[in-house]
Amino acid sequence: MTKVRPYSQVIDRLRAAGLRPTRQRLALAKILFEGGDRHVTAEMLHAEVLNANVRVSLATVYNTLHQFTSCGLLREIVVDASRSYFDTNTTDHHHFFMEENGALEDIPGDEIVVSRLPKVPEGKDIKRVEVIVRVGPAGE
């Protein structure tokens, strides 16, 4: 029977992305990736980390989320000028944004069809098209 180290999958994931598994990265990655696909803000993750009795500053959480995004472990979803979510599901998909509570919900990529895109500026390529469908209570 082989013994599995508690952080081995997280360590492997960080190393595969080219990141050194520091104490802070390990703590944040464990909370982020061991619960299935999810959408979190830096403040939400910071609160979860503090509840797990790990002392990490909010600035470190922001820096780590941006590092994870840069190396492809997360996708950043900007819902407005003051709020970004980080998505552990990096596959092509879209989102519903629930205006009444700020939650995001995945929409499978094949459920939205974009029939036409504008001409791309010279020297540029389209990397991805993301659609955010904003919804609120019916009748308002």
Helix content: 25-40%
**Low-confidence residue ranges:** none
CATH superfamily membership of the largest domain: Winged helix-like DNA-binding domain superfamily/Winged helix DNA-binding domain
Taking all Cα atoms into account, the compactness measure Rg is 17 Å
Overall number of structural domains: 2
Give the topology string: H per helix, E per strand: HHEHHEEEEE
Span between N and C termini?
Answer: 59 Å
Using the coordinates shown, work out and report the CATH topology of the largest domain.
Arc Repressor Mutant, subunit A
Features:
Arc Repressor Mutant, subunit A, 140 residues, 31% helix, alpha+beta, three-stranded mixed beta sheet, globular, three-stranded antiparallel beta sheet, 6 strands
